[in-house]
Amino acid sequence: MQIYLDTANVKEIQEGANLGLIDGVTTNPSLVAKEGRSFKEMLLEICKMVDGPISAEVVGVESEAMIKEGRDLAKVHKNIVVKVPLIPEGLRATKKLAAEGIRVNVTLCFSPTQALLAAKAGAWCVSPFIGRLDDVSSDGMALIRQIVTIYKNYDYKTQVLVASVRHPQHVVEAALAGGHICTMPYAVFQQLVKHPLTDIGLKKFLADWDAMGKK
Ligand code: G3P
Hints:
This protein is α/β, with parallel strands linked by helices. The chain is built from 11 helices and 8 strands.
């Protein structure tokens, strides 16, 4: 499973990238607004840090505006994936952008029928928001399983990008469900490697080694 960072914070992205395990980055208008800086300048900086797909979202809500924005964003760097919302206008824009060879991440997906339409429109990936479904007492991971099955049944090439991830267990379940990509906040990424028994075990190994040296 590919691991993406879901942030527009370049410090976090650089730290994650230093480990060499980050396959891509997703941003959204809320994450970009939090940074308070030029969008395109930020995207270029991110593209230099991570050599993989970098999602950048349009803010237009009509297909013509989305197509124009999408073309502009795609020109920023070859690794930019244009993110469009899963509304009828977004699907129309996806079809057009995909036909031009621009990769599209169809975002704000909350149902299997939406995901089916995103694949039919030619999306490069679809982003189901599992955390936000869990927040309203729905089963976010069940949606991932449904989409993975539907895409397999009809051999759609659209990838399932598991988004709105809140904790490591979401990552485990995304991988078990066969999600292609999982995007997560940097704090969740940091938690993936941690285990207290690893720390306790290492401390004991080193203490035993030191004790042998003193004999
Ligand atoms: O980038 C989209 C998604 O991952 C947002 O997550 O935590 O705001 O629901 P969240």
